[in-house]
Amino acid sequence: MPNSCAFCGSTQPLTREHLFGKWVSKIGLDLSPASHHSSALNGLPRDLGVQPPYRLQVKNFCAACNNGWMSKMEKAAQRVLTPLILGNPGKIALEDQGILAMWAQKTALTAMLVSSDEQREGGYGLARSEYKAFYLHRERMQPLDCSRFWIGEYAEDDGFSAVRVTPLVLHSPRNPEPDVPCGYALTIVLGRVVVQGIRFTSADAEVDVKSTMDMPQLWPGQGTLQWPGGTPCTRESFLGFADGKRLRGVDGQVALQPWRQAAHMPESVHAGDQVAVPAMCRKHVVSYPATLLMEAMRGRFYAFLRTCGCQVTYLLHTDSDRSRFRAHGDDAVRIYKRLPGEEQRLVDGTEPFLCKRLPADADAAIMKAASQL
Length: 373
Prior knowledge:
It is a single chain. The protein is an alpha+beta fold. It folds into 2 domains: 14-260, no CATH class; 265-371, no CATH class. The protein contains 10 helices and 22 strands. It has helices at 63-66, 69-85, 94-111, 117-121, 128-136, 238-242, 260-263, 290-297, 329-338, 362-371; strands at 14-18, 34-38, 46-51, 57-62, 90-92, 147-153, 162-171, 183-190, 193-200, 209-211, 217-219, 225-227, 247-249, 255-258, 269-271, 274-278, 285-289, 302-307, 313-318, 323-328, 343-348, 351-357. The protein has a 6-stranded antiparallel beta sheet. It has a 5-stranded antiparallel beta sheet with strand order 20-19-18-22-21. A 3-stranded antiparallel beta sheet has the order 15-16-17. α2 (69-85) packs across α3 (94-111). The longest helix has 18 residues, at 94-111. It starts with 13 loop residues before the first strand and ends with a helix.
């Protein structure tokens, strides 16, 4: 895609497009500089530097697309979204709902192009066919088929914005996890608005889905909707929400889960009295005492810090079926210090191993500590 328009395939000169439309920086949001990054779900973030928000751009679209149908869509979305982004309650007319869902899908497709060429060559991002299908259906001014969207409120006025795309699989207790995802969830936070969508990339895989957040359904439209509604998204709940953990099959027989190959690190290896875990740098491994693995089997989970050969410090915690990386660098240390409970000292060969016993809801404890940074 780097030498042709990501949507129409034209080889005409490419133009720059804002991740969020240029209009977003002109409606009264806080423009204080903030750190920006992009990353695969299971990799170290790529540092994009400190800059004013809503300025990120990609250069992947031709002028005909950028100044034509894409501009038309942004103007329509701006009219409806601006008061909501600023936190003003209102109604969304049925005729505007398709364009907002399309805008969210376009924003997610654009965000996937912020990644480096190396990341995309490694499989990061969405398939070229998604961009082509989006272009072919552009005149409808609605999202791709087999899509469903909800719109709700981001409850905090902290300047946080994000676009997160998570490949999903349909999970049934009686069947093993599929080898390939059935689709993806996309989640956008902008000002006080959060939009979440799910797109099944094959009609054969589509199931009827509901959100347990009870946010109003944006698409397919069901009539005029009132915003805000449902359970608000918070900084603490964002990651679990964005990874589709609040989506359920209506029939109750299947659940949607992040595709392990994209969302999780490779499996750890139990060797003797240690458990070795591939680090997020993809160059080294970090290890922890096998005692914690035995504790996890009993439902007792721990958080701890480990440093790889790149001198990057990670925050990890044990879970019922794996070890999870939750943060890296200075943030890892700060989150660990904010976790509740007393630090425990275990014997690990000749070195002490420090860790903290996590509460029953380990995920919530870590997200709460992270939200306090």
